[in-house]
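Progress report, Aim 2. The chain analyzed during this reporting quarter is listed below.
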Amino acid sequence: MDKKILSAAGFLGMTAIVLGAFGAHALKKVLDVEALATFETGVKYQMYHALFLLFVAVNGALSHKMKQWIYRLTLLGVLLFSGSIYLLATKSLSGMELKFVGPLTPIGGFCLISAWGVLMVHFLKKKA
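Predicted structure tokens for the chain:
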């Protein structure tokens, strides 16, 4: 499980850097300031959660079951939260109608909050 989480963390971190560079260089020329800031929000949250998964993977105080829950919630959260933000921020480039994507952002945010909540509850319940 740790290898899977570390691999996912590496992938999320790597793609966050690629997307951040893409936003700073290529998208800067074609998106307005607000859309670019929105895109950067997706990148930030993706990177934060790549680092979060690194912490989860190397934390020996977490059970396999807890790591699985946090891993799944975090991956789903990043996919829905950051993924929907990327699509919405660049919708002017695709010309596609993306109304169905809007509700995915808060669902992804809830998954990310839940992953942190699972971590918090685990440590609050843990005896000293």
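The helical segments are 2-25, 33-58, 64-89, 91-94, 104-125. The mean pLDDT is 94. These observations will guide the mutagenesis work planned for the next reporting period.
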